[in-house]
Write a structure and sequence with these properties.
The protein is mainly alpha-helical and 148 residues long. The chain has 5 helices and 2 strands. It has one domain. A two-stranded antiparallel sheet has the order 1-2. Helix 2 runs parallel beside helix 5. The chain is rod-shaped.
């Protein structure tokens, strides 16, 4: 930003920049530099805040992903209300999504390979896995861990 141009626009028709005392011009430039520094700090803070929010979101999704895997292993209800087995194909389709994510985490695939194969991001694949496991559990139930 050109401080002299901004100053000229403000005082246009009222006062010429040359007529301003050197002290006033120095104060103006000092104030503008300070304003610029504050804006940079605010932008830095906003970027940091957005990064922390994204990291928390990713951590929460990773946790949900692992919980969904555990629930998938317990899917299908066997108890006093009946036996509801999950069809093999449904479990297999969900496990394909799980394996895709695990391969990506082990860095077996590059980002380009990931997008070429899956066509969607790792995060979206995790969401799809969680959604599919939730559908399976809703339809077929699950056996919670035994309480001791």
């Amino acid at each position: 930003m050109n401080f002299e141009k901004e100053l000229q626009d403000i005082f246009d028709g009222i006062l010429k920049i040359e007529d301003l005392p050197d002290e006033a011009l120095a104060k103006w430039n000092e104030w503008k530099e300070e304003e610029k520094m504050i804006e940079e700090k605010v932008q830095e803070w906003m970027n940091e805040k957005a990064k922390k929010k994204e990291e928390a979101k990713n951590k929460r999704r990773d946790t949900d992903f692992e919980i969904a895997y555990d629930r998938l292993s317990r899917a299908g209800y066997n108890g006093k209300h009946g036996n509801f087995e999950v069809p093999f194909e449904l479990k297999q389709n969900a496990m394909k999504l799980y394996e895709q994510v695990k391969r990506a985490e082990k860095s077996e695939w590059s980002e380009e390979d990931w997008l070429a194969c899956a066509g969607i991001s790792k995060a979206q694949t995790q969401r799809n896995f969680i959604r599919k496991v939730n559908e399976i559990i809703t339809d077929y139930g699950w056996n919670p861990p035994p309480t001791n």
